[in-house]
Amino acid sequence: AGVSTASGIPDYRGVDGSYRKGHKPMSHDDFVTNATNRRRYWSRALIGYDRFQAARPNEVHAALQALQRDGIVSLIATQNVDGLHVGRKHGAKGVADPQLIEAHGRAGLYRCVAVPWGDDVVDAPCDH
Known about the structure:
The protein has 128 residues and is mainly alpha-helical. The chain is built from 4 helices and 2 strands; from the N terminus they run ααααββ.
């Protein structure tokens, strides 16, 4: 926990985290079934966009990657959505990494709720 805070990503559960200030995460069901909730979610996400965009992997990310590369760690599981565990080597869209589980997904990788799961993700605006 807290690996990305040194990169400028806020710790939501920490002393100054938004959870302590009353922020409640939106459930998946509330997101996919209500367009107003989705608009609120994306509006809030835009507030932190510049911080996420500017963040770069730090020494801990590099150490984890080295442990993986050297075969000491075979899998990394994270709740972080910042994508810093894979560095910038995969680009903004990212590439699936079988040695990384991003439990909450990755900011920057989105799927329109109206696109069936078997279809490719597209870089088109989503009205849903």
